[in-house]
Amino acid sequence: MGPNVPNNIAKHRRALDMSQETLAGKLGITKSQVSRLERGLSSITQSRMLQLTKLFGIEPHALFNDAATREGIDLDVMRAVIVQLDEMLIRLGVKLTPEQRGDLTVELYRLEVSGLDDDQLLDHQVNIKRFEGMVKALGN
Asked: What would the mean pLDDT of 34-58 be, rounded to a whole number?
């Protein structure tokens, strides 16, 4: 297992707001086994890796990427903003033009990362619910 795989398993699990217990249930293993995978104390089979990538919605190579690259972190944050914004727009029934959606995505990303240094960004969990009022106002 590559040196980045354990950290990336934990990172992708947290990005989905999934507990170790939930991931364990989806994989058919114990929470302890998930913990050992995330700490690099247990090796991972190819079939388990494919299970994880399917659950996380990522390509297998993403488990091997260096999680500490600023570009990779920025893209992960941007992806989380896009996903959460799309879910919010659907839930609120707000219709935006592509330009409005693009501008809003960029602005929400800026608000999310404003003032965060690299270490804080690495551990940052995106949550755009606090901007729901702004999104509702745009839909009117």
From this structure: 89
